[in-house]
Write a structure and sequence with these properties.
Helices cover about 35% and strands about 15% of the residues. The protein has about 150 residues and is of the alpha/beta class. The longest helix has 18 residues. Pfam families: Rhodanese (PF00581).
Length: about 150
């Protein structure tokens, strides 16, 4: 009986000690739907800025009205990050940033991580769900391109 109590106590103490040793989780990514983006564009809401990271040829084919082309995709190299960084000075501190990438995943997540490193609060960073390629056809009046 004493051995069992000792064993259980040891396990309990170990659990308590190691529970604080887990790696801090990176903040989650914030996504915004195409319908919500459409509302922002239609209202002319200046509280948001759209940073489009698509490569130039894709941006030329299709992009959101008022999107700023950065050509930073996939935001992995220092050169690609610099393409994104050069647009930050024009963004007001109260504006939220919506990242538009081809599919709304890797490149957009890389952008958000980089912008966090630049001191932009995660609450200001949004990713367009499913990216430019997932933009619904019924909202094509908000798309420009060739």
């Amino acid at each position: 009986m004493k051995m069992r109590s000792f064993f259980l106590s040891t396990i309990f103490i170990a659990l308590v000690m190691f529970s604080g040793c887990s790696k801090d989780k990176e903040p989650e990514f914030n996504y915004i739907s195409a319908n919500n983006v459409a509302d922002i564009i239609n209202k002319g809401d200046t509280g948001y800025v759209f940073l489009d990271i698509q490569v130039q040829s894709d941006f030329d084919k299709h992009h959101l009205k008022s999107a700023v082309s950065t050509c930073a995709y996939p935001v992995k190299t220092d050169e690609e990050k610099a393409l994104l960084k050069k647009h930050l000075a024009a963004i007001k501190p109260e504006q939220k940033i919506i990242i538009v990438c081809p599919r709304g995943k890797g490149g957009a997540e890389n952008s958000v991580k980089y912008l966090r490193e630049q001191g932009i609060d995660n609450s200001r960073l949004l990713i367009l769900e499913n990216g430019q390629q997932g933009w619904p056809g019924n909202l094509n009046d908000l798309i420009e391109g060739k």
